[in-house]
Design brief:
single chain, Rossmann fold, 189 residues, 7 strands, alpha/beta
Amino acid sequence: MNILLIGDRESCDYNGRNLPESIATVLKADNNIETVILDGDKLNPCLGCFKCWISTPGLCFQTQDIGNQLNGKEVQADVVIFVTKINYGGYSYDVKSYLDRCIPNISPFFNIVDGEMHHELRYESTKLRIAIGYGAINQAEQATFSALEKRHALNFQPRRSLCYTLSDEDDFNALGFELQKEISGEIGR
């Protein structure tokens, strides 16, 4: 499987653990894993100009950062994993900065998906999208994050999407087993 693992800066030292590195180690067998640690300060914000839909379809006209390269990698991946600190139920600054720049990967046209209007896909959908949130203060914040990720995943219409939240070391150990099971199960689909 071609796996793209996208993490925020803080995920590299969460309770003494480098989460992206630990996740990559768990999934290493028979998988091609590329890990990208985002720095929202080095990623230009989306300008909302929609040139990626009109003038340069599929490409952001801002080419002086990794936005377009990362969008291309996401489109080519079988599995995309986001590792993000949960802030007030939302994504971290680093991950949100990237998600805002994903607009070129969808089309300006619309379709009805599960009875709701969503953008058409510009490219074939990812097989599996996984969001891993960590650092939530309480269950309400975890629930908000899970609901937000579910809605966001709808826009990119992966074949399957999963969302996990981590509170402690026991959660990570259980997550590692679950990820191995899901990724190996995806190979047969």
